[in-house]
């Protein structure tokens, strides 16, 4: 009678088969049926890097407040009947010259004046512009 359990050939075949099964679990992509194109890694999430000077210009701040913050911008003459602060001179600020105070003014605006609320700007952006204005102070 042939005893499969004790046959050396059977044992060899058994181990080879066992090895193949294990391999197909460990390397499932090796078998041709599962071949799939290499997937690109997902793109990193979009990051807004505040570029304060660009935001100061793009949001129109420079037009009224001037490129250097002295209150003499390209549109300042249209605001002749209103007070335009001089960011360089802390004594001309009414609503505070700290970074926090400036950020609050930008976010809420000053009702009834040409200074509108920039509520659409992100906190990160507002803070960056506030810091930029603070650097104009002498
Ligand atoms: C259309 C013109 C105009 C634009 C645009 C404008 N401002 Fe103003 N801003 C003013 C005027 C006028 C005042 C003074 C309001 C008042 O009478 O108190 C003012 C006031 C301020 C103040 C308060 C200063 C204080 O007295 O304490 C800050 C800070 C300020 N602006 C920042 C900004 C920033 C930052 C931007 C752009 C995101 C901007 N402004 C855009 C006209 C403008």
From TrEMBL:
An annotated Gene Ontology molecular function: metal ion binding
Keywords: Heme, Iron, Metal-binding
Organism phylogeny: Bacteria, Pseudomonadati, Spirochaetota, Spirochaetia, Leptospirales
InterPro entries: Cyt_c-like_dom (IPR009056), Cyt_c-like_dom_sf (IPR036909)
Domain spans labelled Cytochrome c: 47-137
Membrane-crossing residue ranges in chain numbering: none
Name of the protein this chain belongs to: Cytochrome c
Superkingdom classification of source: Bacteria
PROSITE patterns: CYTC
Species of provenance: Leptospira kanakyensis
């Amino acid at each position: 009678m042939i005893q499969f359990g004790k046959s050396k050939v059977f044992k060899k075949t058994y181990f080879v088969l066992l090895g193949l099964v294990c391999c197909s679990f460990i390397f499932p992509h090796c078998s041709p049926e599962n071949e799939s194109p290499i997937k690109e890694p997902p793109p990193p999430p979009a990051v807004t890097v505040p570029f304060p000077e660009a935001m100061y210009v793009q949001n129109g701040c420079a037009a009224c407040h001037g490129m250097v913050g002295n209150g003499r911008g390209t549109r300042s003459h249209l605001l002749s009947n209103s007070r335009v602060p001089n960011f360089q001179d802390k004594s001309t600020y009414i609503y505070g010259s700290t970074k926090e105070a400036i950020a609050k003014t930008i976010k809420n605006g000053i009702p009834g004046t040409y200074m509108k609320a920039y509520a659409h700007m992100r906190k990160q952006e507002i803070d960056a512009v506030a810091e930029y204005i603070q650097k104009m102070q002498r």
